[in-house]
């Protein structure tokens, strides 16, 4: 029977079975984080109890300095304009016992200002007497710069749209105005773009939409339009259809120019060229043209 006994099954240490890294591996993982893990108390100084090695890259201060409030207080690194917002986010998280996220600026040891994102959770300490905050802080300066640049670009585009000399519009797929600038409102006889968007009823939009549905874009399409006071004018419309990934039209956008005076001038020149100034009768040039036709 002893010959039939199975050999004992070798098992890995408990740490390997559970996948728990040893202390050295854990220290390496924490040190490689692009940011810092933290744990601070909810006291008057927000005293740090733990920071990972990433604090040096993030703040310019070593861990020993941040953990000693006599040398460096982390709360004082936070930009004075953002400190109240940071404290408010922490207080709300503590009251609700939930995760929180807040972005603010810090002043590094070298004086550089960086944007950081703090994500964490508030919970009671082991002695159930003092609350602590635990989480992660990372540098988001580059993302904030991109966001600010995009916001500035959006404001500039909006300013160009609103102050353009020609009428500009954005219409839905069914032809309803979505956006209009002041020049477009003036063309159609309205005091403001808002009044135009509320009250505009004109056949020129329907004609433009029909052409856009067929051609996808229209350049210099001229037609008659009716102003708010009933006056009929001539407009030149340019537009294009915007589509989604499936090729469906999402909206139309383009420009409108009042060409009434140009049309009148052209008509006057043509009349002078084809009719006698004294009799008002067709002259020889017009007669020859009609005969050729």
How would you sum up this structure, described in words?
The chain has 293 residues and is α+β, with helices and mostly antiparallel strands. The protein is 39% helix and 28% strand. The protein is built from 12 helices and 10 strands. It has helices spanning 14-18, 23-32, 55-59, 63-66, 74-77, 83-96, 141-163, 182-187, 193-199, 203-215, 260-274, 284-292, and strands at residues 36-41, 48-51, 99-107, 113-124, 131-139, 167-172, 177-180, 217-226, 232-243, 249-258. β3 and β4 (113-124) form a beta hairpin. The model is unreliable at 4-18 (pLDDT under 50).
Features:
alpha+beta; 5-stranded antiparallel sheet; rod-shaped
What general form does the structure show?
rod-shaped
Q: Can you write the helix and strand succession as a string?
A: HHEEHHHHEEEHEEHHHEEEHH
- The number of distinct β-strands equals 10
Structural class: alpha+beta
- The low-confidence runs, each spanning 5 or more residues with pLDDT under 50, are 4-18
Tell me the distance between the termini. 121 Å
Mean pLDDT: 82
Main sheet attributes: strand count, strand direction, barrel closure: 5 strands, antiparallel
Cα-atom Rg, whole angstroms? 36 Å
Please outline what is shown here.
This protein has 293 residues and is α+β, with helices and mostly antiparallel strands. The protein has 12 helices and 10 strands. A 5-stranded antiparallel β-sheet has the order 2-1-5-4-3, with helices on both faces.
